[in-house]
Amino acid sequence: MTKIHSFHIPVMGIGFTIDSPLKVAHYGIDSVISLVDDILLEKLRKMYCEKFEQSYQEISEKVDDFRAKRITSYLNLINDIAHKNIEKLKNSSATTEIKKYFSMLPDSSNIKREFNKLISDGVTIEDIKDWLKNNIHIGSIDVNIMTKVDKENYKNKEQLPSIYNDAHAALRGFANSNLNSSVILSAGMNPRLYSYIENFEDFYPDTNGNIKKKIVLKVSDYRSALIQGKFLAKKGLWVSEYRIESGLNCGGHAFATDGYLLGPILEQFKQEKENLIQTTYEIVTNALVNKKRTAPNKRLPIKVTAQGGVGTPEEHNFLLDYYNVDSVGWGTPFLLVPEATTVDKKTIESLIKAKEDDLYLSNISPLGIPFHNLKGNTKDNEKYKNIDKGRPGSACPKKFVALNKDFKESGICTASREYQHLKMKELYALNLAPKEHAYHLNKITEKSCTCVGLGTSALIAYNLDTKTEGNGVSVCPGPNMAYYDQKISLTKMVDHIYGRDNIISRNDRPNMFIKELNIYIEYLRNYIKDLAISTSKKQEKYAITFTQNLREGIAYYQNLFNKHRHISNQLTKALVLIKEIELSNNECESNTMY
Fold it and tell me: What is the CA radius of gyration of the chain?
């Protein structure tokens, strides 16, 4: 797969990039489809079959292995249409679309220079069609699987084998598709799922090192990358890319780690990349020989990419040039690009109006992981109405995150009405003091039905039936959204990334590293506030480690940016804030002791 852009569009929510490849792949742009919701995929498959006059046969829940088969069918359809789009472009006599393809390429692109020279020399489009066939490349149609969203499934009240778990079925759906692309595994390590990959031929390299279906790990630190990379290598499986995401300065679910900041993490990958390649290559070669499989005759390549809070061409280029990353993920701003993502009009309007205070790190996710949220989103409004009616919780129509087993072996979603009713009964029986009771009650009822809400926007955007889902939309932009205030064309967005245009009207946007640092400090502050109500030695130790890692991160940035006075001043302010938090924590500990 030839990569012609230095950015990619990461997965966003469940439905926001559900069909992005149909919009951007023929421009050479990589994007990622979420495989969480097979019900949504099936609805869109029907829609696109009708639109492109292809035969459609429903894959109902009565069909054996329906989840995997729905995913395979959808991915095959998207792949087929995307390749027809690129062939249409290659054979087109319409210069507008062809010029659009090349105009969006970075100015450093050799094929862009060649194309512009052909045009300036007066060569007609008809004359350069053969050249186009060899020089226009499709963007990768990648998929995302959240490894922990691996719900066990049942038939006739009997638990099915683990290969029918949700993430396992999603992996099988991708493995059986005709895609030549990557699966991005996110949300941590799932050993059983990783072991399951061994069953599919497309994940193994051939003699030349070619892999039809590549493995990408989304990671938040080097240690995690090395552990997971070695685990897979021992099975003869190669990790082709480590996708580093900011712990907190990102969209969707956020993984704060232990206070490790993006800059120091990228520095470690930069220093250790060669060691990572060599270590895992030796392991994977031995594993392939032991499996009596073909081992590649040369070292396999590894890409290191980064994403999370990037907003200017200067930041984009810094990641490429200083940290030597292979690609930079641009997520949140693309929510305002209808030519690239699928977001309903009302949600786009809300995102355009959003300011810093409207974007916050919440606890609404049923997965129990911090989740970036937009105040006033319609799914949360729906949740508050249910609380006011005395019936908190969702009907839970899809059950993709019905993973809690406090009350049922088969699992319940913590955002469901059933779970919250049972949990509140437990809480009332404790007869806690009013303040403590209110704190724990909010912890129960704040959960929102995101597995439905994050896909509904696509249904509304395409005027599809939402009777089962309702009209509530969850949206998960990163904090970066506050600095974008307009709907953006695809060309304008790409020009902004490459520094040929500017779509940020404000001049007070902080550097991405500083923004991340401030979010980490606020996270630490809120964590310590919670310790005042409920604490343990483990939590106290975590707070101390977290603080120390933040201090080390600030020292790293001070050294890195010592010539940038405004950044150095912001780092000094951050140290003052951390000192205040430490004093507050000490005060909490004193109050706890007495």
Answer: 25
Let me know if 172 is exposed, middle or buried by CB neighbors in 10 A (0-12, 13-18, 19+): buried
DSSP state of 412: B
Gap between the Cα atoms of 496 and 493, Å rounded: 5
The overall pTM is greater than 0.85: yes
State the CB neighbour count (10 A cutoff) for residue 372: 26
Residue 455 CA to residue 542 CA, distance in Å, equals 35
What does the DSSP 8-state code read for residue 45?
Answer: H
> For 475, how many CA atoms within 13 A lie in the half-sphere containing its CB?
37
Share of the chain above pLDDT 90, in %: 86
Are the CB atoms for 125 and 101 separated by under 8 Å? no
Whether the predicted pLDDT of 562 surpasses 90: no
Q: Which residues, including other chains, have CB under 8 Å from residue 372's CB and lie 6 or more apart?
A: 250, 251, 252, 253, 254, 359, 360, 361, 362, 476, 477, 478, 479
How long, in residues, is the chain?
594
**Closest listed residue to residue 105, CA positions, set 255, 3, 228, 34:** 3
**Phi then psi for 426, rounded to 5 degrees?**
-60, -45
